[in-house]
Amino acid sequence: MRKPARIAISYSDPGILFGTATAEPRNCADKKAPKGSFSRSVLRLIIMVFCWSFLARSALAKSFNIPLSPPDVAPLIGRTYPNDLNRTRIDDGLEARAEMTVALTLSAATARQVREAQLLSDAVVNVELIFNEQIT
Q1: DSSP one-letter code for 62
Q2: How many other CB atoms sit within 10 Å of the CB of residue 11?
Q3: pLDDT digit string (tens) for 29-67?
Q4: Which parts of 14-110 fold into alpha helices (H)?
Q5: What's the rounded Cα separation, in Å, for the pair 14 and 8?
Q6: Can you give the pTM of this predicted structure?
Q7: Distances (CA, A) of 114 to 96, 97, 105, 108, 110
Q8: CB atoms < 10 A from the CB of 116, how many?
Q9: CB 94 within 8 A of CB 125
Q10: What is the pLDDT of residues 73-112, one digit of tens each?
Q11: How far apart are CA 4 and CA 25, in angstroms?
């Protein structure tokens, strides 16, 4: 007894859309999956799971965004500091350096002086941020 043949219909065939398709049975058992289709499927699954977990985690983080309670011992934040005598809330040494850099840049006449002023302004500076209250 013969087994009935499986028929695969391609929905991308324009004949199906317009009713002019010819019925040619194709044996699906003869078709093999293209090389790498398993790895592509696994990769797609991993990407979908990663995206889903990222979205779920960010949604949960937003829903549990509860402000912190004030600490039992309040921090001591001074109004004046020894390195800010002119009370501009900027370290006096850093402020003087910035003013000197601007003055050197404006007064530079040669390309070498411009480069030196640029090097001085590009130098990395460590800063300390001081807040009056807790930031959440």
Answers
A1: H
A2: 6
A3: 555 556 666 678 888 889 998 888 877 776 666 666 666
A4: 14-18, 37-63, 92-107
A5: 15
A6: 0.42
A7: 19, 16, 6, 5, 6
A8: 14
A9: yes
A10: 877 777 888 888 988 888 998 999 889 888 988 998 999 9
A11: 10
